[in-house]
């Protein structure tokens, strides 16, 4: 999984409001700033997690995510920014950045639902491995994305934007509750998903910066970029992304994954074979990466990790893990 350089830079820059420089964030995260120089470059998703952890540690403020999102920063949308800004309505703007956000990395995903009554729901979902390995930074990213949705929507429409309600799939301390309510209004904690829901009147608001010609041109450009991304990824990479994006640790059958890719299991097998891969190999690579993250969590037992990842026995899990990494899961657990 990867994250766009601009998103990392955006997190670090926002720390300036707390007297923290970008250089301090990068230094604590053990990140060479030169790696972020390419405008359209990507970093391993763990780099994004480390930058969030550094920002939290240096500011010592749990709600940085809510304040970060209040800063209108179109740069965090990369190629999607002009398309979003030129959209005719807020609903179309939301559809633009949720649909093309894979251009900014795959450690975080958006999903938009349009309902018959005209209301719109935007779902915010960090990858399951991220949530499990670093739940606090995953929560920061969700809150940042939600807050940024409101600030960008307000900027583009010239209106104060409030959702009907917000839902978060985790809980917060009582002392922070008012901050969430001030921003989102009604908030449901411990919900099934992370989401903002907007009514028909809000989703239909026209954009001040709407531009039909630019919207059409940028739509074509973003679609071209998406085709390039898909062609570069390869089938094994696309399967891996599906496995990482799951909300729970279970092992889907090849038929399930093939259906998500709009093809038959036989076609998926053939395409993986062309890349000298099998579905089982891609699945095992995912399991090892997931296991490595889970084993770093304090209090997690090796047996629990084996069960979460669908292994039938501790022995089979240990053999598979050691074959891929050269070290047993128990030995890795002892190191951390």
Give a short synopsis of this structure.
The chain is 57% helix and 9% strand.
Please give the radius of gyration in angstroms: 21 Å
Structural class: alpha+beta
Which architecture of the largest domain would the CATH scheme give at its second level?
Alpha-Beta Complex
H/E element string? Answer: EHHEHHHHEEHHEHEEHHHHHHHH
Percent helix range: 55-70%
- Helix count equals 17
Count structural domains: 2
Largest sheet: 5 strands, mixed
At the fourth level of CATH, the homologous superfamily of the largest domain is H-NOX domain
Task: Report on the architecture of this protein.
- This protein is α+β, with helices and mostly antiparallel strands.
- It folds into 2 domains: 2-210, H-NOX domain (Alpha-Beta Complex); 234-335, Homeodomain-like (Arc Repressor Mutant, subunit A, Orthogonal Bundle).
- The protein is built from 17 helices and 7 strands.
- The strands form 2 sheets. The protein has a 5-stranded mixed beta sheet.
- Strand 3 (108-114) and strand 4 (120-126) form a beta hairpin.
- Helix 2 crosses helix 3 (45-59).
- The mean pLDDT is 85.
């Amino acid at each position: 999984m990867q994250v766009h350089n601009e998103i990392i830079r955006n997190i670090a820059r926002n720390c300036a409001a707390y007297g923290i420089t970008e250089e301090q964030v990068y230094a604590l995260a053990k990140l060479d700033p030169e790696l972020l120089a390419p405008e359209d470059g990507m970093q391993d998703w763990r780099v994004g997690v480390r930058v969030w952890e550094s920002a939290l540690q240096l500011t010592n403020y749990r709600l940085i995510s809510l304040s970060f999102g209040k800063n209108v920063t179109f740069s965090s949308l990369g190629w999607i920014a002009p398309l979003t800004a030129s959209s005719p309505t807020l609903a179309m703007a939301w559809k633009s950045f949720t649909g093309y956000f894979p251009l900014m990395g795959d450690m975080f995903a958006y999903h938009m639902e349009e309902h018959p009554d005209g209301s719109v729901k935007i779902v915010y979902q960090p990858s399951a491995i991220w949530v499990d390995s670093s739940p606090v930074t995953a929560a920061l990213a969700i809150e940042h994305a939600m807050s940024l949705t409101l600030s960008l929507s307000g900027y583009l429409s010239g209106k104060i934007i409030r959702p009907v309600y917000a839902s978060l799939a985790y809980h917060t301390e009582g002392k922070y509750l008012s901050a969430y309510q001030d921003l989102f209004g009604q908030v449901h904690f411990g919900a099934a998903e992370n989401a903002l829901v907007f009514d028909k009147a809000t989703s239909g608001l026209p954009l001040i910066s709407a531009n039909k010609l630019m919207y059409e041109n940028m739509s074509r450009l973003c679609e071209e970029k998406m085709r390039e991304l898909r062609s570069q990824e390869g089938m094994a990479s696309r399967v891996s992304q599906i496995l990482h994006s799951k909300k729970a640790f279970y092992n889907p059958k090849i038929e399930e994954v093939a259906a998500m890719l709009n093809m038959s299991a036989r076609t998926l097998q053939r395409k993986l074979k062309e890349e000298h891969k099998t579905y089982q190999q891609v699945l095992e690579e995912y399991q090892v990466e997931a296991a490595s993250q889970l084993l770093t969590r304090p209090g997690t037992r090796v047996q629990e990790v084996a069960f979460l990842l669908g292994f039938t026995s501790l022995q089979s899990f240990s053999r598979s893990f050691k074959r891929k990494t050269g070290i047993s899961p128990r030995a890795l657990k002892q190191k951390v």
